Amino acid sequence: MYSEKVMEHFRNPRNMGEIPDADGIGTVGNPVCGDMMTVYIKVKDNRIDDIRFKTFGCGAAIATSSMVTELAKGKTLEEAKKISRSDVADSLGGLPKVKMHCSNLAADALHAAIEDYEKHKGTKR
Amino acid sequence: MSGAKRIYMDHAAGMPVDPRVIEAMLPYMKSLCGNPSSVHSFGQEARQALEEARTKVAESINAESNQSIIFTSGATESNNMAIKGVAHRNQNRGRHIITSSIEHMSVLNPCKFLMTKGFKVTFLPVDQYGFVDLTSLEEELTSETIMVSIMYANGEIGTIQPINEISQMVHRKNAYLHVDAAAANGQVPIDVNDEGIDLLTISSNDMYGPKGVGALYIKKGIQLAPLIHGGGQERGLRSGTENLPGMVGFGKAAEIAKEEMSTESERLKKLRDKLIKGLLDPIPHSFLNGHPTKRLPNNAAVRYSFIEGESILLDLDMKGVAASSGSACTAKTLEPSHVLRAIGLKHEEAHGSLSFTLGRQNTEEEVDYVIRIMPDIVKRLREMSPLTPKELME
Ligand code: FES
To answer: Residues with beta carbon inside 6 Å of ligand 1?
Structure first.
């Protein structure tokens, strides 16, 4: 059902965990199946210096979270903002149709984290 | 799956065919075998094999006569035949049907279909264990009610319904009781006479018989409209040339199930209870789905908070273990199982649900293995979940 790439990320998720002193946090809920994903970012010189995720969801949700962190790590905020929902799915070698919404969740969580960072920039969290 | 160990604990989804059943079927697949409707000796031999199979199936549920058994293509067809067949034929007596909210789709959807044809259908609620609310049943039964359809047991959470009590209530109102026993047949003794069952759905594969064959028991005197019209086979209720190898296999499977049920269900109950204990005790925030004792001997259904069922299944599968989940993420519709919702589980509670359904091949070593690997699987996924309380991971 899943590509080998998806399974590989599911087995060995990259950047899993929290960043206690994160600069931006994005939490999104999945309206379709009721799952949840949180992305934490640490920003340095306008770049995503560190990124972590936590996910409550299916195999695809876990793999897409892992993938989105990998895609975003080291990118400038502008570049990271451009990471789209389909980029995530494509980098995983595709997802079953019914699971496409899980990759949306991952991209949305990343964007929410960046937005959160920009909102709070300059203020102490 | 790589590696040596492969453990199948998803018998509710499909069962292997017993080698003795295959043996019994072979002659009817290999050699020339007649059409049971033909006059010549080939046909007559086929007819005899068919009637013997019918008798075995009848005996396995203590039916009064083998003439009460109609062979079908499986439980889905049997349920359709019972519900639509009774409704269409008996609508002059009333147009109300009662069923429960945890029935199989092959009961729920025919009922919904009938609603579009002007029938009124009541879907009874169930309690937290999955028992049908008998007070509601009593209240909803009216002189308009022609049939009540309640499953014998639920394959997902294992709960066995009080069929005797239900039957008494239904018969006091002169309605028919249809029971879908697809999940229960072969697991627990069923006696249509004793339990007051008017129509009973049974399925071959759920007792280690071949797929593609099932039966509907119809108590003598009950009139049904056929779903399939044609040459008039199966007393005109189910036309089409008989699936002889399937029926012979079903007969053999029913015979074996009857003979071995008491020993096998005792064995399974022990394994089940050990599995349930081992899945729950070492893991905090874990719960049993269904009732502790009034459950199918082969069903261990649990749920874990903060994690999702499909990812648990994938982790189990990587370790060679096959089970199933009612989580929304495993469903094509992305809705949690209607059974889990009906027993009152919240969306996120249903998410972490798992059903292990045991079978003849499963051993105690396999159960031990599953118990051994589960805590780490739950731990790994909980570490990933934003819902897991911090204290739990320390
Ligand atoms: S998270 Fe529910 S289907 Fe992917």
So the answer is: A 30, 33, 35, 57-58, 60-61, 99, 102; B 328-329, 334
